[in-house]
């Protein structure tokens, strides 16, 4: 298709258009047996007109997803230690260190050194654990906010909050809200199965590396270490 | 992601011809699937790559005991490296569908995996996430559904900071979304929309592309118009999407492609297109079109421009149908002739690279010109009629579209027809009359009627060039008969 050369400079030019030619229709135009009227056409999503384009899109996705599944090469470097105070983890690849840093030191409470998966959860933790005003208010009104962003509900107790999240937001019933934390006392129920114990050790192992500066000035109950979420244990210590 | 990983494409053992052949096979399979309404299926999303001899990612079949052992080692091993290696071995195994089955049937396996996913050992987390990602690829819904317990955690991690991890979570979610309605049903109440709103503010291109992918899969689901799109439009996600599609130095094509597809599904659903218009979707799309034409001109790498053009055409075209008639005149885009210049530059580009896109581009041209004297005039003043006519012979669908656009121009009256006369139009029409496709001929007849009405000399010339004989060929055709008779009358008697 040969395009006029002026077209390219027009594209680069200023917005606007020539004055439209006058429109002057004859009523006989498009009159029976003729049919034509100018009209905009809309195609629904599954129309066969879209078949070619959809197929191309899928081919593109296939290629893309095959590549996503490949394990990325890592940038290997001489071993080094994480420089955050109290952290003793060693790394030999930059991506690994980056991931570790974000997950373990990213959203960290400066008061008790716990790490959280997101800034939002950190904020909630600080509020519920380190804010004495919160404690006072919580005695009189619903203060425990739902952890799902955008949900406005608040609750009297963290248990109520947990029930809400399980019931309404379909969180798994064993989503870790309660803390299994640092008390390694004999109070631990024997019901904890071996995997659980291992994970609990894990979270404690992390604590050894980054000892909390001072125990948080809030109540703790000890419950046996259930499965998922050692990091969630720490962050969702906020519900007790 | 695209540019990052392109360099790592492993060289396949087969030659160029074989690649082309395989691509044709893939296309055929996809076409068939679409006709059967099966296009949104996991099976087709991941191409079965040929097994490479000694490939480092060869799927390994693991037995129950081995799976258990790897899990135990990963969870309770004393040496960090050993735990990691156990997970890597598990992941390789999980590439095999039978291992996946074994895994999900093993009691407590998903709990353990989720436990590792949420542990505070960063590298174990990553490997666990990769295992989950493998599982999410499964074509068997049972496997995808077994991953349900992980979704709330995946969503929580979207607000984190580790971009590689987030990317992985997003692709995993995207795969689970495609496979299982049970998963989708769970994601909305678990807060996927706010999670995406938080995540879409990430500066990382790879994350944004992954997000766009996951979102496009969510929006493509059959229940999306009812269950998902309304919540999405209630959030600020749309504004962010449009922001990421603004042309300029920060535009990333891979990201824009994904969000353009998202926009396409939203527009087709017709849930609230007025909102899209009020948020400036039309100017954004128009500017994007101009930008793409500029890039095509510079003959930049075609790949992603082609991928972007299709959804942008569709979005613009369908959205134009939603502009209320009274507001038509106010839309700047419809009074800026650069948009038709851009469209033609792109059409020429597609002619060389992807002819299948031509019809969608011409459909857009129809919607732009149908009710727009301004843009019809632009086609004339920018000398675009001849290039348009050059497209006529390509296919019946394209012929009909070209003829329809010409009708859009001609029906506006004598002032427009005069600009087409004298010209190549008549001889082109005489050529189309030779064809047998009823729709093509029918549209030619419509055009002739308008032309004869507003430009009587055309009727004269038609007679002189044996037009009547050309018409006679189709006299017996029921759908054409009346119109042919009428034209014959007009030509002879004026």
From TrEMBL, chain A:
Q: Which residues form the C2H2-type domain?
A: 82-105, 109-130, 146-169
* SMART domains in alphabetical order: ZnF_C2H2
N-terminal signal peptide: none
InterPro entries associated with the record: ZNF511, Znf_C2H2_sf, Znf_C2H2_type
Please give the Gene3D superfamilies that the UniProt record associates with this protein. Classic Zinc Finger
Q: What is this protein called?
A: Zinc finger protein 511 isoform X2
Primary gene name: Znf511
From TrEMBL, chain B:
**Extent of the signal sequence:** none
Instruction: State the name under which the record lists this protein.
Output: Transmembrane and coiled-coil domain-containing protein 6 isoform X3
Q: Which InterPro entries match?
A: ARM-like, ARM-type_fold, Armadillo
Q: Which residues cross the membrane?
A: none
Q: Nucleotidyltransferase among the record's keywords?
A: no
Keywords, A to Z, come to:
Membrane, Transmembrane
**Naturally occurring in which organism (per UniProt):** Cricetulus griseus
Q: Which domain of life is it from?
A: Eukaryota
Instruction: Tell me if ATP-binding is a UniProt keyword of this record.
Output: no
């Amino acid at each position: 298709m040969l395009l006029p050369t002026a077209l390219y400079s027009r594209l680069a030019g200023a917005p606007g258009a020539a004055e439209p030619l006058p429109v002057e229709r004859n009523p006989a135009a498009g009159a029976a047996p003729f049919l034509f009227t100018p009209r905009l056409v809309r195609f629904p999503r599954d129309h066969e007109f879209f078949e070619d384009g959809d197929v191309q899109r899928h081919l593109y996705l296939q290629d893309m997803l095959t590549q996503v599944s490949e394990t990325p090469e890592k940038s290997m470097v001489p071993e080094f230690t994480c420089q955050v105070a109290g952290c003793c983890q060693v790394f030999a690849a930059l991506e690994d260190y980056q991931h570790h840093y974000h997950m373990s030191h990213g959203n960290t409470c400066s008061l008790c050194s716990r790490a959280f998966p997101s800034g939002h959860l950190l904020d909630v933790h600080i509020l519920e654990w380190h804010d004495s005003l919160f404690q006072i208010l919580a005695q009189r009104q619903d203060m425990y906010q739902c952890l799902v962003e955008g949900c406005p509900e608040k609750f009297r107790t963290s248990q109520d909050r947990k029930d809400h999240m399980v019931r309404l937001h379909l969180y798994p019933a064993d989503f870790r809200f309660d803390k299994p934390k640092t008390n390694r006392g004999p109070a631990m129920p024997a019901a904890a199965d071996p995997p659980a114990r291992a994970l609990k050790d894990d979270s404690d192992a992390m604590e050894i590396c980054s000892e909390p500066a001072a125990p948080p000035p809030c109540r703790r109950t000890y419950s046996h270490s259930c499965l998922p979420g050692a990091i969630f244990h720490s962050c969702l210590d906020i519900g007790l | 992601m695209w540019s990052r990983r392109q360099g790592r494409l492993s060289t396949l053992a087969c030659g160029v011809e074989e690649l082309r052949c395989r691509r044709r096979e893939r296309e055929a399979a996809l076409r068939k699937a679409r006709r059967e309404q099966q296009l949104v299926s996991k099976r087709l999303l991941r191409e079965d790559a040929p097994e490479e001899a000694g490939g480092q990612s060869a799927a390994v079949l693991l037995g129950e005991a081995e799976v258990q052992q790897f899990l135990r080692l990963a969870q309770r091993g004393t040496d960090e490296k050993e735990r990691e290696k156990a997970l890597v071995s598990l992941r390789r195994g999980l590439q095999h569908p039978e291992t996946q089955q074994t895994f999900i049937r093993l009691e407590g396996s998903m709990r353990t995996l989720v436990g590792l996913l949420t542990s505070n050992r960063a590298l174990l987390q990553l490997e666990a996430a990769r295992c989950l990602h493998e599982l999410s690829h499964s074509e068997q819904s049972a496997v995808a559904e077994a991953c349900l317990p992980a979704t709330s955690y995946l969503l929580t991690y979207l607000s984190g900071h580790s971009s590689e991890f987030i990317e992985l979570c997003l692709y995993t979610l995207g795969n689970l979304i495609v496979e299982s309605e049970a998963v989708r049903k769970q994601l909305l109440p678990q807060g996927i929309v706010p999670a995406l709103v938080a995540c879409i503010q990430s500066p990382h291109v790879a994350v944004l592309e992954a997000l766009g992918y996951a979102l496009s899969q969510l929006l493509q689901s059959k229940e999306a118009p009812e269950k998902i799109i309304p919540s999405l439009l209630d959030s600020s996600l749309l504004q962010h999407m449009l922001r990421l599609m603004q042309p300029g130095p920060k535009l990333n094509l891979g990201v824009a492609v994904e969000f353009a597809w998202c926009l396409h599904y939203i527009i087709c659903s017709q849930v609230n297109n007025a909102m899209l218009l009020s948020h400036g979707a039309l100017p954004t799309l128009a500017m994007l079109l101009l930008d793409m034409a500029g890039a095509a001109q510079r003959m930049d790498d075609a790949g992603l421009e082609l991928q972007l053009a299709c959804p942008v055409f569709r979005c613009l075209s369908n959205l134009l149908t939603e502009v209320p008639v009274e507001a038509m005149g106010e839309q700047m885009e419809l009074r800026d002739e650069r948009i038709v210049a851009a469209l033609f530059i792109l059409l020429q580009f597609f002619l060389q690279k992807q002819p299948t896109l031509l019809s969608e581009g011409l459909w857009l041209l129809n919607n732009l010109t149908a009710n727009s004297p301004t843009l019809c005039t632009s086609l004339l003043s920018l000398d675009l009629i001849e290039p348009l006519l050059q497209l006529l012979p390509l296919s019946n669908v394209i012929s009909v579209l070209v003829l329809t656009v010409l009708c859009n121009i001609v029906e506006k009256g004598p002032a427009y027809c005069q600009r087409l006369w004298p010209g190549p139009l008549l001889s082109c029409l005489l050529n189309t009359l030779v064809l047998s496709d009823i729709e093509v001929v029918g549209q030619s007849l419509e055009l002739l009627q308008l032309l004869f009405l507003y430009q009587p000399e055309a009727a004269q010339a038609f007679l002189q060039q044996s037009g009547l004989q050309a018409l006679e060929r189709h006299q017996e055709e029921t759908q054409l008969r009346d119109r042919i008779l009428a034209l014959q009358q007009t030509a002879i008697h004026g």
